[in-house]
Amino acid sequence: xxxxxxxxxxxxxxxxxxxxxxxxxxxxxxxxxxxxxxxxxxxxxxxxxxxxxxxxxxxxxxxxxxxxxxx
Length: 71
Known about the structure:
Blueprint: H1 2-15, H2 20-32, H3 34-50, H4 52-62, H5 64-70
Helix pairs in contact: 1-2
């Protein structure tokens, strides 16, 4: 599973504009240290929660979007 997380992290870095090779190197470096890898994962999840799409996704999963639109 760490390989999947490493690939995901590299893609996140690429989405932020970092070249693929450098993004891959950065992800490898982060994944070498479990504490750093965990911190990076927590940071990414926190960024996801702040995005406007998060509320929509959460509502869709819990069904609260349907109730909001029904009002």
